[in-house]
Design a protein that fits this description.
Strand content: under 5%
Radius of gyration: 25 Å
Number of helices: 16
Distance between the termini: 26 Å
Order of helices and strands: HHEHEHHHHHHHHHHHHH
Strand order of the largest sheet: 1-2
Largest sheet: 2 strands, antiparallel
Oligomer: single chain
Number of strands: 2
Structural class: mainly alpha
């Protein structure tokens, strides 16, 4: 024990600059992520503003049971998981395909133009993005509705039809994020040894074979890591965009756990119930992350830990 302490002390004194750089993010995690977790205990209490977190009465799993028995439970689970998996299936491969395509482009100006056009939507704020979507899909005045009407299709209120909501949400997200998400894959492809391409070219390999046997194997490790992280947040559908796109007509498809927690917790002032729902959501995400990471570690050499 003394020997380990001496080694740690010697390492600390020798590399103190690195530990100093590590200090701000560690403090950030402690102050803004770990210390607030103390408040999660209100999920097991009947929280009273007068008594505070520590003085409120313990009620065990009362709020969890109330959520499981709620008539909205299965609707929330179905919508949350449905939107998450739809986003994953539609959005995960497209940045990889875009990166592979850009990697094959040799014309500098065209490549930069495509990159700029595909990256730009990422920097549009969610509020502006939702406003654009609503304006484009508005009946009678929206571009999409005018186009479909010109083709002889009756005017449609796309944002008011529950069956269309998931597709509108997912594909607008794909359009907004595919360029920015492809950056990491382009960076991975930039690290491929050029001698491999040269050897493949001398062997007469086509572009498709270069992609299959050189590019894709180099992308698999980073793809597995990003897939694990994506599956680890499958119950964590973003709140802001869905809430802005919601209306009374599409609520049956757009109500997810995050919007439900906001409405019940903050608007309804039922803090204990919303904390229980949020905690349930986080625990499911953690279990999924551990399971997917274990599966990835077993079937391949790539995993988070």
């Amino acid at each position: 024990m003394k020997k380990e302490y001496k080694l740690a002390s010697r390492s600390l004194s020798r590399h103190w600059e690195l530990y100093l750089l590590l200090l701000p993010p560690v403090l950030y995690l402690l102050i803004f992520k770990y210390i607030p977790m103390v408040g999660v205990q209100i999920a097991f209490k009947d929280f009273s503003v007068i008594n505070g977190i520590w003085g409120s009465e313990w009620v065990g799993f009362k709020h969890f049971i109330s959520f499981f028995e709620s008539p909205n439970f299965w609707l929330l689970i179905e919508n949350t998981i449905g939107i998450s998996f739809y986003s994953l299936v539609a959005g995960f491969p497209i940045p990889i395909i875009l990166a592979l395509a850009l990697n094959e482009v040799r014309t500098g100006m065209f490549k930069k133009t495509v990159q700029m056009v595909t990256y730009a939507p990422h920097f549009i704020s969610t509020v502006i993005m939702v406003s654009i979507i609503i304006l484009m899909l508005s009946p009678h005045v929206g571009v999409v509705d005018r186009l479909t009407t010109w083709l002889g299709i009756p005017s449609t209120n796309f944002m008011g039809i529950p069956e269309y909501f998931k597709s509108i949400y997912v594909w607008s997200g794909v359009w907004q994020g595919m360029g920015y998400s492809s950056i990491i894959y382009i960076a991975a492809l930039a690290g491929v040894d050029s001698e491999l391409y040269e050897a493949a070219r001398m062997d007469g390999a086509s572009r498709i074979k270069k992609i299959l046997y050189i590019d894709l194997p180099h992308l698999i490790p980073i793809s597995v890591i990003l897939l694990i992280l994506s599956l680890g947040s499958v119950m964590g559908v973003g709140f802001e965009k869905i809430f802005l796109m919601q209306n009374s007509l599409n609520i049956s498809s757009s109500e997810v756990i995050s919007t439900y927690v906001y409405k019940v917790g903050l608007l309804g002032a039922n803090f204990s119930f919303s904390a229980a729902v949020g905690l349930f959501n986080s625990v499911i995400n953690l279990i999924l992350l551990i399971l997917v990471n274990a599966i990835a570690r077993r079937v391949s050499e790539n995993s988070l830990w």
